[in-house]
Amino acid sequence: MKTTKQYGKKADKALSMWVKLARAAATFGQLTDEDIRRYGVTQAQFGALETLGHLGPLTLGELCKKQLVSGGNMTVVVDNLEKEELVERIPSTEDRRVVLVQLTKKGKRLFDEIFVQHAQCVADLASVLTEEEQDELGRLSKKLGMSLQKRL
User: Fold this and answer.
1) How much helix, strand and coil, in percent to the nearest 5, is found in the chain?
2) Which residues, 6 or more positions from 12, have their beta carbon under 8 angstroms from its beta carbon?
3) Number of DSSP helices (H) and strands (E) in the chain, helices first
4) N or C: which end of the chain has fewer CB within 10 A?
């Protein structure tokens, strides 16, 4: 039984795909958010810790681009992580106008401790798909995302 109005074959197919994609992403996101909360950090803080843990020191602007958030929001996230002594701001040795954000030793320990657990949670959630299906979904998601990025 169809629950949507008929808008034409292409539009109906695209709408159906979008609803399924949005529902799956929302549910997956909700479950990963629940996992993140058990570490005592917000989703935004976890994202910043994860990015810095994998990529090393970054400028605030680079961190914003990686996390797809605004500068004002990331400044608050970094301020709060800095209060918890998980990150520190350090002046660039090459350009005194540039300030880098990096994990402290405490932040690196936390990242090393929690990220492996979170990765396992994500793997468990994705395990309903075979490895080949995960590869295909990743490839298709990247293709869609890269194509849509050009429209921004």
Assistant:
1) 70, 10, 25
2) 4, 6
3) 6, 3
4) N
Contacts of 53 (CB under 8 A, 6+ apart): 103, 107, 108, 111, 112, 115
Distance, CA of 41 to CA of 35 (rounded, Å) = 10
pLDDT tens by residue, 87-143: 999 998 888 889 999 999 999 999 999 999 999 999 999 999 999 999 999 999 999
Task: Give the pair of three-digit tokens for residue 48.
Answer: 């910043």
pLDDT by residue (tens digit) across 39-85?
Answer: 999 999 999 999 999 999 999 999 988 887 877 888 999 999 999 99
Residues belonging to the chain: 152
**Using CA atoms in the order 8, 10, 16, 21, what is the torsion angle rounded to 10 degrees?**
-160
CATH fold of 18-149: Arc Repressor Mutant, subunit A (1.10.10)
